[in-house]
Every structure is written in structure tokens, then in C-alpha cells.
Amino acid sequence: MTIFAEIIAGRAPASRVYEDDDVLAFMDIRPFTPGHLLVIPKVPASSLAELDPAIGGRLFQVGQLLAAALRESEVGCDGVNFFLADGVTAGQEVFHVHLHVIPRKAGDGFGL
Ligand code: 5GP
Known about the structure:
Blueprint: H1 3-9, E1 16-19, E2 23-27, E3 37-41, H2 53-72, E4 79-83, E5 99-104
Antiparallel strand pairs: 1-2, 2-3, 3-5, 4-5
This protein binds guanosine-5'-monophosphate.
């Protein structure tokens, strides 16, 4: 069981920003930039190969909504990166698929 499964179950804390039957989004505990969010499927999938493509579509759809919301929020970003690490070689650390939604501002010093 991963920490994200614990968050879904409510056994670990997280700052939740969006939730529906399929997807949960919450603040990253170590944000790359202020407002950095993670969007995860509620049904655990450790890798893209295990992820139901329909749920993958929902991750992107929710990420798209959150990106628009971030642009309107006090975060005040003028750009957004989506990022997904699949596998150790790609930098994946938590083996429950997650889409990073990373607000960007000119001069924020973050390089992806
Ligand atoms: P990865 O490297 O697997 O793509 O990213 C994992 C992300 O999960 C990292 O950005 C890390 O900060 C975040 N993370 C790890 N543990 C926790 C946690 O317990 N709570 C939250 N909110 N984020 C976490």
C-alpha cells in the first residue's frame, strides 16, 4: 500500500482540492512551485500499464480544470506544466500513478 492509498482512505492527511468518484487531487507536500498539485486515480494503479485508459482520460480532464482554476486563483500563474513519471528510471517515487500539475510564473526558477 502506498501513501497515496492512505490519503484516499483518509488515513493520512492531505490538502484536498478536488474529488469525485474516480479521481482525487491534493497539494504536493514538497511543491516544485507554489500551488503544485497531484491528480490521482482512486483505484490504485502502480504504473501506466496498469491504469484503465478511461481513468487516464479523467486524470487529464481534471488536470485541465485545475490548470484553469490555478490561472484564476491567488497562485496567479501564467503557465502550467503537466508531468507524469512512469517507472524508476523516469523518476517515479510513489507507485500509484499521479499527474503533477505545476503552476509556472516567469522567473520561478523551476526547470523541467
Ligand atoms: P514522483 O517522483 O513519484 O513523480 O512524485 C511523487 C510526489 O509525491 C512528489 O512530488 C512528492 O513531494 C509527493 N509526495 C510524496 N509523499 C507525499 C505525501 O505524503 N503527501 C503529499 N501531499 N505528497 C507527497
